[in-house]
Amino acid sequence: MRKKIKKEVNDAESVLRGAFDLLKAKVQKQIKLLEKTGLKRNLTKEEEKIVKQLKKYIDDAERDMSDEIEGIEKHLK
Q1: Which of 1, 62, 63, 64 has the most CB within a 10 Å radius?
Q2: Do residues 56 and 27 touch, judged by C-beta distance below 8 A?
């Protein structure tokens, strides 16, 4: 039973990481577009704030996801 649960957790982790990586890539693409625009003209304060927030959201989500997965793995050992 424990082995089956461990496999299910590993499968879920794989799907979650794949979905997160896809979302992260799309958000990073939007950030790069804004940063590229910043080379042509000064970004507005709002645009700068958006870039900063998006980067923070990605970092926070990635950290939270990793912490949750580590916690689950510890409980399965």
Answers
A1: 62
A2: no
Instruction: Judge whether 35 and 51 are in contact, CB under 8 Å.
Output: yes
Residue 47 C-beta-side C-alpha neighbours within 13 Å: 14
Whole-model pTM: value is 0.77
Placement of tokens 């940063």 in the chain: 35
Q: Which domain holds residue 44?
A: 2-76
Average pLDDT over residues 48-62: 95
Cα 66 to Cα 68: distance, rounded to the nearest angstrom = 5
What would you measure as the largest C-alpha separation in the chain, in angstroms? 59
Which of 15, 8, 20 lies closest to 76 in space, CA to CA?
8
At 5, is the pLDDT very low, low, confident or very high (cuts 50, 70, 90)?
A: confident
